Amino acid sequence: MLKDFRAFLMRGNVVDLAVAVVIGAAFGAIVTSFVNDILMPPIGRVLGRANFADLFVTLSGGSYPSLAAAKAAGAATLNYGLFINTIINFVIIAFAVFVLVRQIDRMRARPTPPSPSTKECPQCAMAIPLRAVRCPHCTSNVGGPEMAPHTPQRS
User: Fold this and answer.
1) What gap in Å lies between CA 136 and CA 131, rounded to an integer?
2) Is 95 within a domain?
3) Which of 18, 67, 81, 144 places its Cα 20 to 30 Å from the Cα of 105?
């Protein structure tokens, strides 16, 4: 049973999935940092707030200068600023995954069409095998210069 479990873990799909989860978690952390530390401060500044993550509504009736102060006081809050940050994180990650999948689809080998096995007779326009030298329908000679009739050499 242990041998079967090891074989299961070492299959390509399981290892690939594990790598994808680790890379995805790291990418998620990078996007979260990008949104929280680079993208949202200028947006918060434009909206007249020092910190966009501090957009919240106190449900317990008190007034607090920041979300951290409200949490320290144990107040119930509705954190819509953090929710907006999470939505922006999701949109950025979803767009990055979309671009990645689109590029992978473009890089996949397109199936090549099968090479033709017939050609058209120039006299009767019927389909004949590529290697044919004479058309079986009209008996015209359809061979190219490489198929010229062989002339015996005289000695």
Assistant:
1) 12
2) yes
3) 18
Tell me the backbone φ, ψ of residue 122, rounded to 5 degrees. -70, -20
CATH number where 28 lies: 1.10.1200.120
* pLDDT value for 148: 47
**pLDDT for 12:** 67
**pTM of the full predicted structure?**
0.53
**Same domain flag for 27 and 94:** yes
Give the pLDDT confidence score for residue 20 in this predicted structure: 84
Q: Is residue 34 part of a domain?
A: yes
Q: Which residues contact 138 (CB under 8 A, 6 or more apart)?
A: 121, 123, 124, 126
Q: Is position 35 within any domain?
A: yes
Burial 22-32, CB ≥16 within 10 A → b, else e: eeeeeeeeebb
- Which residue ranges in the chain fall short of pLDDT 50? 145, 148, 150-151
**pLDDT the model gives residue 49:** 62
- Overall number of domains in the chain: 2
Residue position matching structure tokens 């007034």: 63
In whole angstroms, what separates CA 109 from the centre of its chain? 15
Do 59 and 79 lie in one domain? The reply is yes
CA distance 20 to 69: 38
Residue 15 CB coordination number (10 Å): 11
